[in-house]
Design a protein that fits this description.
Helix content is 43%, strand content 18%. By secondary structure, the protein is α/β, with parallel strands linked by helices. The structure holds adenosine-5'-diphosphate (ADP). The site of adenosine-5'-diphosphate has 17 residues, from helix 1 and strand 4.
């Protein structure tokens, strides 16, 4: 039984994240998507909302669960019994930060490997912050996020 942790802010979850989750399902028996509590970011959606959006989006994948954590990713990976940490790579611009994190995490927990997955090309320019900006300007985001997120964004920015 090989488990992987997919940590991130997911503010909110997009089809890019979901593409990565689907690919991870082909490689691991179980995926725990974990909403990280990052004190340096002030998210648009609460942790509970972000968990709900992901859970709804992956409800057809019984091997995927969703939780949250406050602390070191490797500690949480050990807690859930994960052997891998999943991260998505979109462009070279992601690489330097991700490389540094992966090596630091390996230093902290040598038995846990970071696995990088590339999404479909159509999602490589997508990130949560662009979605928040588009939605705040009343742009249609239905091609980029699940319906539950689309509705929540509409409600949030409906003036
Ligand atoms: P974080 O603050 O941890 O970067 P994000 O929610 O922005 O949280 O991203 C979580 C993970 O998902 C990261 O590995 C990121 O590279 C990846 N990711 C984000 N958007 C996409 C996308 N459009 N396609 C593939 N991976 C993505």
């Amino acid at each position: 039984m090989r488990k992987a942790l997919y940590p991130g802010t997911f503010d909110p979850v997009t089809y890019g994240h979901i593409d990565i989750i689907q690919r991870a399902c082909d490689l691991f028996d179980e995926i725990v998507v974990t909403v990280a509590i990052n004190p340096t970011k002030s998210p648009l959606f609460t942790v509970q909302e972000r968990i709900e959006f992901i859970a709804e989006s992956v409800k057809d994948y019984p091997q995927v669960s969703v939780d949250t954590f406050d602390g070191l990713v490797v500690d949480h990976a050990k807690n859930v019994g994960a052997v891998g940490i999943i991260r998505g790579l979109r462009a070279v611009s992601d690489f330097e930060y991700e490389f540094q994190m992966a090596l630091m995490n390996r230093k902290l927990a040598k038995d846990i490997n970071t696995v990088f997955l590339m999404p479909h090309e159509k999602y490589t320019y997508l990130n949560s912050s662009i979605i928040r900006n588009l939605a705040s300007l009343n742009s249609d985001v239905r091609d980029f996020v699940p319906e539950i997120v689309q509705k929540a964004l509409k409600k949030k920015f409906n003036k």
